[in-house]
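Let's sit down with a protein and look at its sequence and fold side by side. Which protein we use is up to you, so please pick one and set it down. Label the sequence line and the structure token line clearly, so we can match residues to local backbone shapes. Go ahead whenever you are ready, and we will take it from there:

***
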Amino acid sequence: MYSPPYPVPYPYCPHAFVPAVHGLPAGPGPFPRLPENPGYPPVEPKQLISSAASLRKLLADGNVVLARLSDEPFARRLMTAAQAGRKQEVDRLMKSITISSVLAARYTPSGLVMTVTPGDQDLACCVLTMSLKWGQ
């Protein structure tokens, strides 16, 4: 049996030590180690927490919108106006849904896409987008 001329760590690992090659530092592995922190700033979750709180309000308003769209007479009026191409009537019906956020809606022959954004506060913090199918 062959035995190497140098001491072998137990258990044997062929990559226990890799000598310096082509200017890379020698180390315990086939690749050099990357720095632990590649220059990112320290984590500050304040904005994320604020955005999450704002999105919770948008979700509550979205729930109000979905409840209104689940009302059959309202849904029928909305779809009839959309099918007839009466955009102003669709907009009026959507604005009749009272929420504290800003609701924007657009429709296609196959569905309705709504975006809910915060009213006066931090307009860029978050957006809730809902897509509902109403046709083929």
